[in-house]
Write a structure and sequence with these properties.
single chain, about 325 residues, alpha+beta, 3 domains, 5-stranded antiparallel sheet, 4-stranded antiparallel sheet, 11 helices, about 45% helix, about 25% strand, Helix-turn-helix transcriptional regulator
């Protein structure tokens, strides 16, 4: 059989979903190892030139992955690793979610994904007191869609509230931030919008009809993420600080921030608009790599915090 016809026939087989071993190809076409490898090399080049897929080899077995299949695999691989990094779900819910993500992949891609995730899944460390959250996430999403108002018990993280207390609030937005799911609610007890951690909601006592909130007065998740670093606390203010580490680290920490000056020593001056209660925790975490320069009230607060921290280590 002429080599061109053989290569064309192999391409058709791969395009139709065939999985072939090197030994199969050699036996069927009565060719040697070097000829087989050359044919497979031609096929790889042709697939790459026309961007129709990729020929995958696994222990001497070859199959074609189409471009869409590769993209699906890449999306599931990325989503799975992000999910593993959250630590938010119980092991049972995590495994169910990961299995669901991969269910529409081909058997070959599922096997490849399983191999890639073996170590990450085996080393998954959930939060210290994980709670089943999938059904509660669903329940909250329905409440938001139906504009329902809730009466529920909630265990605060504040030491002054050691037991669950009754709250009355209307959920308006559900989101995730660093290990935890949160529900933004218009709260009677807090006198405005408040961020409730989903896993700290103990028991939902009642559900009643709430209000269809005016668009201009609704909670803005976009503003929350632009002005908050982990903790939605404190007043909004414009701050400036000198940063001596990699600037992008600080710019990523505070969305909307910008470099307003580059100093001769390699440091930069960054300006950000933040809720200061949460932001100060990050500012303090940067140690000598950061110096707040404005406003004066924040400079004073940073100095007081650092002096108090140092005092704990004085003999």
């Amino acid at each position: 059989m002429q080599s061109n016809y053989r290569v064309a026939e192999l391409i058709v087989q791969f395009m139709n979903g065939a999985t072939l071993t090197q030994a199969d190809i050699q036996k069927r076409y009565q060719i040697g190892l070097r000829t087989c490898q050359r044919d497979l090399s031609y096929i790889r080049k042709a697939l790459a030139e026309y961007d129709t897929g990729q020929l995958i080899e696994q222990q001497g077995t070859y199959h074609l992955t189409h471009k869409s299949e590769q993209l699906n695999y890449e999306i599931v691989l990325a989503a799975s690793n992000i999910l593993l990094g959250t630590r938010a779900l119980t092991p049972t819910e995590l495994n169910a979610t990961l299995d669901f993500l991969s269910v529409n992949l081909s058997p070959t891609m599922q096997a490849a994904l399983h191999k890639q995730l073996t170590v990450p899944r085996g080393s998954y460390v959930p939060l210290s007191k994980p709670k089943a959250l999938l059904s509660r996430l669903h329940e909250m999403a329905i409440c938001i869609a139906n504009n329902q108002r809730l009466t529920f018990t909630y265990l605060s993280s504040q030491p002054t509230e050691p037991r669950p207390l009754v709250h009355h609030a209307q959920p308006v937005a559900l989101f995730f931030e660093v290990h935890y799911f949160y529900v933004a609610m218009l709260s009677q007890e807090r006198g405005g919008y408040w961020m409730y951690r989903l896993d700290r909601i103990d028991t939902i006592l009642t559900k009643t009809a709430g209000e269809k909130l005016d668009y201009a007065q609704r909670f803005s998740l976009q503003d929350h993420r632009h002005h908050t670093y982990l903790v939605d606390d404190g007043e909004l203010m414009q701050i400036r600080f000198i940063y001596r580490f990699y600037p992008q680290t600080a710019l990523d920490a505070f969305p909307g921030s910008r470099v307003i000056k580059e100093n001769a020593d390699g440091s930069v001056v960054i300006e950000a608009y933040v809720k200061i209660g949460g932001a100060i925790r990050w500012l303090l975490s940067q140690g000598s790599g950061l110096k707040v320069i404005a406003p004066t009230s924040l400079v004073k607060q940073m100095r007081q915090e650092l002096i108090a921290a140092q005092a704990q280590y004085l003999e």
